[in-house]
Amino acid sequence: MTATQAVGAVRDFAVKRAGQVVWWHWIVFTIVAVFVITPVIMLVLGSFSQASLPADFSLNELGWDNYIDVWTDPTTYSLFTNTFYYVTGATAFGITMAAALAWLVERTNIPGKIWIYAGVPMTLAMPGLLQAMAWVLLGSPRIGFLNQFLIEVLGIPMNPINIYTLEGMMFVEGLRLVPTAFLMLVPLLRSMDPSLEEAAFMSGAHPRSTLRKVTLKLMLPGLLAVTIYNGMTALEVFEVPGILGLPSGIYVFSTKIYAILHSVGEEPVYGQANALGIIYVFIAIIATYLYSRVIAKSERFTIITGKGYRPRELDLGRWKWLGVGAVVIFLTASIFLPFLVLLYVSLTPFLQVPSWEAFENLTLANYYDVFNTDLIGTVMWNTTVMVLLTSTATVVLSFLVSLIVVRSKFWGRKFLDQLAFMPHAIPGIVMGLAFLWLFLQMDIHGGIPIHGGIIAMTIAFTIGFLSYGTRSMNAAILQIHKELEEAAQVSGAPHWRTMWRIFYPLLLPTIVGLWIWCMLHAVRHASVPLILYDGAENRVLAVLIWRMWDEGEVGGVGVIGVLLIVALMIITLGLRLMGFGRGAKIQQAGPG
Question: pTM for the whole thing?
């Protein structure tokens, strides 16, 4: 085949491909549209519904009563105050800690960088639910181990620590935000040309002045984007304020919605929960808009050029050990201490302050009790099925959506991309509430009995994770040139073989990373399962941990927590080594 013939064959292939009827584009578009738009519609209609239960919903019984009840309730306005202080405090603490850690590993000569790079992201294996429970055992005024140590050993009067406060919630949630913020800030510092800072030093500027006037200003768009993103994360989280705020009556939006639906001795007011959820969504939409605006203007602060450079490391001198101490304190507070506390309570016959006598009476009885219960097998099976289905469905759906958005000429690809990103503005507990109304209507009027089961949780999680999944897949597919797939198909390779031999190997690191991300978040998040599950036979681990904690079974919580954290760490490390190792081999092998 001559060069002219080859060019003609590629042109004919492109024309033929453009004229093909891509029926699966319509299927993907319909699936995303139905499961993104319909729950939002049901959430809005439910906020106007006068029915006492979602099952009794009727379009003939709509009104403004729920909004009137919500806006005339004085506690609604305290929610704004509590939520504002909680989100602001947690975000400020988390971003400050993450920025300090990122600066230490990227711009200084602190020892042990590889351990910091590995240790900080691994704190993601500590679910927020378990982290908050561990800090209750450490900082509770009544049973807190740290309080008992400070009072009995150091002689400090009264209870110096009270984790059941707004400040306690900020502290624990701030710890939870650090690893994600750290992973987002490290590339910013790594890509910054140090010649700008060196020029300031040569001009006689003080290091603090250089940091404030040069480094921080260059990082401003990225820093703002990271701050807004993590603020949105703190806004939607339920686990930390649920464990620390509910017992002391400190409500934020997420916990207030849960309390309305699960108040002991009171009938749930679903309409008011929906009305409150609509306010919650508006706040999240504003934050999402600000995030997109900051990202859109980031090119004005471009700091990477074609000129080669080497990062300039600041010599900390004797202060480097202070930096090492700060890293150790963070890792201790975020994962080591909570893990050790959960391990300790899992081995004690009853809750007691650590002492030599307590260590002499350690036992595996709690482990036997947990594994001998009939429910644990069902819960483990449900969790495994939910995680496998959610992670796989998110990866597959994200890939298909991104393939349409990036590669096709489908008329609705831009709208599809916007639909996929829309769930990012819907907090988890509101997403669960919206799907609760949808699945009940599907069960009652459509005869599709998925309400309360594992499939319901899987669908809700998959749609909730779609925004992150498509952002990851869009970037990865854009890096694969069209010539590779066109050359394969001109050579006679069917479409499925092109996907398997070209797309899959090149996308493997992204696929593995996204699968791990979905796995961690599906296990960590309790808000969606707590809203959607119906009956003990549909419980997953997050629900079981929540119920056991609520019923005072601290030893059982410790057992499940220890095993879950260890399992998440092993799975995460194993999949990362498998995915990224193979991806590296493919890249080294090259196109031949």
Answer: 0.80
